[in-house]
Amino acid sequence: MTEKVTSAPVGKLTAVKGMNDLLPPASATVEWFESKVRDLMARFAYRNIRTPIVERTPLFVRGLGEVTDIVEKEMYCFEDRLNGDSLTLRPEATAGVVRAALEHSLLYDGGKRLYYMGPMFRHERPQKGRYRQFDQIGAEALGFSGAEVDAELILMATALWAEIGLTDVRLELNSLGQPPERLAHRQALIAYFEQHLDALDEDARRRLHSNPLRILDTKNPAMQPIVNSAPQLLDFLGEASLAHFNTLKSILDVNGVAYTVNPRLVRGMDYYNLTVFEFTTDRLGSQGTVCAGGRYDYLFEQLGGKPAPAVGWALGVDRVLELAKAAGLVATEPRLDAYAIVTDHAAMPLVLTTLQSLRTAGISVQMHTSTPEGMGSMKSQFKRADASGARFALIFGPDEVKAQQVTIKPLRDATTQQVTQPLATLSTWAPTLQSSF
Ligand code: ATP
Ligand code: MG
After folding, report:
1. Contacts from 14-23 at CB under 8 Å and sequence distance 24+?
2. Closest ligand 1 atom to the C-alpha of 267?
3. How far away, in angstroms, is 332 Cα from ligand 1 center?
4. Superfamily (CATH H level) for 26-177+237-326
5. Where in the chain do CATH 3.30.930.10 domains reside?
6. Which residues approach ligand 1 with their CB closer than 6 A?
7. The pairing of beta strand 405-410 with beta strand 419-422
8. CB burial class (10 A; 0-12, 13-18, 19+) of residue 38?
9. Has residue 397 got a pLDDT over 60?
10. How many angstroms does the Cα of residue 117 sit away from the middle of ligand 2?
11. pLDDT above 70 covers what percent of the chain?
12. Would you give the DSSP letter of residue 417?
């Protein structure tokens, strides 16, 4: 059974609300950031993984937990039109990474360090720093149980902030302990909130028995006093959980990484245990969390696989770059070495052959393109060459073309002379187009 896809009368075709186009030159900043991240990940020995954008809905329901904001109200779900399967645009990537690790037995020969980059989808109220399609970059260390791996991931994130010039990012830490400790705390929490039912909002009352821990995460200012004096999970941790937390803290201390322990820090997904953390900033208003993560030692089992410990984080690319912009980072478009000026359209075959050789030699070069009115005057072509940011104009005028030559004119440096070079010796003079002056 296939449904007919029709084009309803929509008026102007625009992008879907909360899903943005990323255009040049802003896209250059994202490319720059991604290349910084790739380089960093390589130094920390994390390898790239790419999982599908669409997954089966139960993966997220089972993985993230039924009573979570994401699963309850933020997922883009749709039916596969052929077999009726429920599919979902991924709201996050950890569940997919774990699914892939299980499906391909990635951990058969030991732990794996992985990272991903890509779009996630959540049906939220769009505002600054909160979109319905947004890019995340995430790192996942699968199969490692030691607190030193939690520390490695946090150190990697702090290295990233330093390398892109961010200074005002704060680290908040907490430990959620292990399931029995959480259960004891949960019971204490329910008993406590039951004594203060009047102070709870509707959302909190609904979650009282299904997910009371999430009440601590409320953004309702009226509930802050009641939440502030609620029983703290940290007081319910056993020796092993405390030891894990203390090891992590001491590694961070030795490395000079500042943090605050926030006993109320809980995360939006149910899969976390032991370490949870967030990097936050005051600069982005209420969308202040730029990177968040923690340990999820039970997710493999929850998804039906052999148990394996794991820890990871995800950062919001838009928020990190917004912060970088506030810190004075400006987008730099890729350099352009040369702009080819062509007076006669008939010379195009020669021009294209030459530019092909230059590009093979590593030179970036933009060709002047004709309009229906023709190639345009030399003057207008020079104007475009200037505006392109290229450092040299390559002039293919009538004399040059006839003599199988090109004239190289510096556009940014008045002290350098223009020269005319034979096309036959291109490989010898091409590198000069990259010379900086
Ligand atoms: P928030 O509390 O801001 O809703 P979250 O706890 O839902 O964040 P995670 O699911 O942990 O966020 O995602 C990790 C990071 O991805 C966040 O810290 C944030 O930087 C970014 N992020 C999450 N949701 C969005 C969104 N809708 N638009 C842009 N970035 C987002
Ligand atoms: Mg959220």
Report:
1. 16/132, 16/133, 17/126, 17/132, 18/124, 18/126, 18/131, 18/132, 18/133, 19/131, 19/132, 19/133, 20/131, 20/133
2. 6
3. 26
4. Bira Bifunctional Protein; Domain 2 (3.30.930.10)
5. 26-177+237-326
6. 92, 122, 124, 129-131, 134, 136, 268, 287, 289-292, 314-316, 318-319
7. antiparallel
8. middle
9. yes
10. 18
11. 96
12. P
Most confident region among 267-276, 363-372, 420-429 by mean pLDDT: 420-429
Amino acid 1: pLDDT: 43
Tell me the C-alpha to C-alpha distance, in Å, between residue 164 and each of 41, 168, 231.
14, 12, 39
Average pLDDT across the chain, whole number = 93
Q: Which atom of ligand 1 is nearest to the CA of 279?
A: 18
Q: Is the pLDDT of residue 268 over 70?
A: no
| CATH T-level assignment (fold) for domain 338-433 | Rossmann fold (3.40.50)
In tens, the pLDDT along 6-15 reads 666 667 899 9
Tokens of 163: 């390398």
Atom of ligand 1 nearest to the CA of 289: 18
Candidate of 269, 289, 315 to mutate for ligand 1, largest count of ligand atoms within 8 Å of Cβ: 289
Q: Could you tell me where the DSSP H helices lie in 147-201?
A: 147-163, 179-195
